[in-house]
Amino acid sequence: MWYYEKKLQYPVKVSRCNPMLAKYLIEQYGGADGELSAALRYLNQRYTIPDKVVGLLNDIGTEEFAHLEMIATMIYKLTKDATPEQLEAAGLGAHFVNHDHALYYHNAAGAPWTATYIQAKGDPIADLYEDIAAEEKARATYQWIIDISDDPFINDSLKFLREREIVHSQRFHEAVEILKEERDRKKVF
Amino acid sequence: MSFTLTKCYSPFVSKFDPCKPILTKCYSTPPNLYIGFQPNNIEQFPTAREALYAGTLWPCLYDPYYSKRGESIE
Prior knowledge:
The structure holds 2 protein chains of 2 kinds. By secondary structure, chain A is mainly α.
């Protein structure tokens, strides 16, 4: 069960109407290495991972939904009052025809989100390595979006999100270390 | 270098679990997790045949896997 706090994890500000940037940002909304994939991947793996790391997957999976919400806010603000002409000029003509101004779970190229983006192998090491890879891929995606974006406010929020990917990757590495530990080995400090 | 190739844990068991609980669950922690960058000149299998059958030249990388089929439930 979740409690909802009606605020964003980190503020989202937008400098100007820029549907083109929204088109790129949607990669992190419904793309393979996006926040939706991340949240669903971790929360789903919780059930079959050793008890010691269930809490970590729960917390990170939950935080990914907070990131998803930030991305959604950015995309919404960037396109909110864009005219059909502006959307078309930004390459979002097909999106407008199908969805009007609604957000949809697809990647920057328009391919809809699919469960094949995520894995659940059941092997704890395999699953955690997938999670680490996913965090690094998401970090890289944020880098490329920051590179292509000229909106300093959006970039500020994206830099926050990129940093969170680094922290999550570190935590997943630590989870692997926990699962590697010999259970009855004495800890020496 | 010493490590075990399998780790086991006791998952939470509820008295309302419908299936007969498996009290111990195990997962693989193969040797590559512990070696990092493989050092030079580590011990090799004595014969090429053994190495071929094992799938690796080096015993320290070898991780036999045995089927869990037919394992008794505790």
